[in-house]
Amino acid sequence: MKNIAIVCGGYSGEYQISLGSAETVYKHIDRVKYRPYLIFIDKQRWYYKDADGNEYNIDRKDFSLTIAGEHILFDGVFNAIHGTPGEDGKLAAYFDIIGMPYTSCDTDTSALTFNKYHCNLMLHSLGVNVARSFSFLNGDTINRAEVIQELGLPLFVKPARSGSSVGVSKVKTEADFDKAVEKAFETDSRIIIEEFLDGREIACGLYKEGKNLVVLPLTEIISKKEFFDYEAKYSGTLADEITPPENLTPEQETDIKALSAMIYRKLGCKGVIRVDYMLTGTELYLIEINSIPGLSSNSIVPKQAGVMGTTLTDLFSAVIEGMF
Predict the structure, then answer these.
(1) Does this model's pTM top 0.90?
(2) Fewer beta carbons within 10 Å, N or C terminal of the chain?
(3) What is the three-class DSSP state of 215?
(4) Could you say which residues of the chain have pLDDT below 50?
(5) 137-148 b/e with 16+ CB inside 10 Å = b?
(6) What domains does the chain contain, in order, with CATH numbers?
């Protein structure tokens, strides 16, 4: 039986979301094959908490655990940390250094997909449609009138590196522009200002099962707010998630799935990911790649797996076996 550390928490505003994902993995992991340990990672401590609430620090030299004199080594890590350091490549680099297998994308791919600016440049070079945009570093001079003239209103201002729509604003008037820029810079030192795309938001989940790439059923996200922001994502009542989408042609479904599979392979992704798009008429635009998507019972990927008839136990087992 393999010892599997399920890491959760992290250093970002997605801390609580990560806990929900990790708890779902812990609940549904195959206990015939794996012995799971929930490992909490925050800026102060890395630790394991047992069923009685006792806490034991992780030895960061080899990511091991000692309980009542027993030295516990892990066979692999299920990465359930959204945001930094789990999704941006920092934790992957640490595991690479100590030789620990992990379920998520490697350091390079994680860093690339987490940085929307760099990822968009890369995928645009492969022929993927992305929204027209400007990008600025903190301290740059931003010509508000020039940006608005080029992109029009409304537009989106977002941190280049964040998840769950943290720091993202929809700007409808010029008077809202500066406040949105300030908000985005509170999350990251680089921001992206993008044109507004009016269309249908479609999500595609993918994961490897052995050598086979499994493309899950698509989901259409219909937000009841201005856009699919943090509150809409996690309130449970402010967005409709329809799996599979209604009134999507077979050609559109095939195109979205084929493009998602191409992205997974070209970027060298690993584990389970989710690719989000905006379908505007006949054109498909990439929104972002989630290299560690939400895995709680209310998250999109688990719902897609359920529609396909795949249990969460089988999904998580495939992801775990994929790291060995």
Answers:
(1) yes
(2) C
(3) strand
(4) 229, 232
(5) eeeeeeeeeebb
(6) 2-103 (3.40.50.20), 111-128+199-321 (3.30.470.20), 133-195 (3.30.1490.20)
